[in-house]
Design a protein that fits this description.
heterodimer, A: about 110 residues, mainly beta, four-stranded antiparallel sheet, globular, B: about 110 residues
Chain lengths: ~110, ~110
């Protein structure tokens, strides 16, 4: 069956531009998570959705970061006015409630 | 907030031998889940094994097993009969009852032929 998909797989942008990263979770998974992974580092939690609502936004690093989820399915992570320190791999995961998270392949973002 | 600590940034094992990766966590909760994920160079995170905190029996998945010590807040991963394909970053993760998920910094495992 289809797993979690993310697009684009790679994104190169210029400092100051806005970017949108997309996550398509596994069908039926109500929970969706965004993480950031800097080079050689662990996973930094960004935000978690239960359905369309985000009960925990505590991990978003600044107000330049926002995320939404519509129809309890697709989610978009938007980074406004990108900075070089935003360069990282952005991972999305989905799960049924209280169950194991399944990860997408990630989007590698490079801000020049 | 819960924290997860992996004290071994790198580990090395000879093919066919056994290696143990350490993980400790800090929590005041009694119900939670623990996971080990593997991330090969392809960067795809793959679930290796999971453990429910209320279960005393250690989880086992083929060559992978855990030593879960709830009182000590320790959750180590043992890989038996190591294979070249086991080489990857391994992340320990904690998920609380309210779905908050935290990861350790990872351990890079090298398997020597």
């Amino acid at each position: 069956g289809a797993g979690v998909s993310q697009s684009p797989s790679n994104k190169v942008t210029e400092k100051g531009k806005d970017v949108e990263l997309r996550c398509d979770p596994i069908s039926g998974h109500t929970a969706l998570y965004w993480y950031r992974q800097s080079l050689g580092q662990g996973l930094e939690f960004l935000i978690y959705f239960q359905g369309n609502s985000a009960p925990d936004k505590s991990g978003l690093p600044s107000d330049r970061f926002s995320a939404e989820r519509t129809g309890g399915s697709v989610s978009t992570l938007t980074i406004q006015r990108t900075q070089q320190e935003d360069s990282a791999v952005y991972l999305c995961a989905s799960s049924p409630v209280w169950e194991t998270q399944y990860f997408g392949p990630g989007t590698r973002l490079l801000v020049l | 907030a819960q924290t997860v600590t992996q004290s071994q940034p790198e580990m090395s094992v000879q093919e066919a031998e056994t290696v143990t990766l350490s993980c400790t966590y800090d929590t005041s909760e009694s119900d939670y889940y623990l996971f080990w994920y593997k991330q090969p160079p392809s960067r795809q995170m793959i679930l290796v094994i999971r453990q429910e905190a209320y279960k005393q029996q250690n989880a086992t998945e083929n060559r992978f097993s855990v030593n879960f010590q709830k009182a000590a807040k320790s959750f180590s991963l043992k890989i038996s009969d190591s294979q070249l394909g086991d080489a990857a970053m391994y992340f320990c993760a904690y998920r609380s009852y309210n779905n908050d998920m935290r990861f350790g910094a990872g351990t890079r495992l090298t398997v020597k032929p």
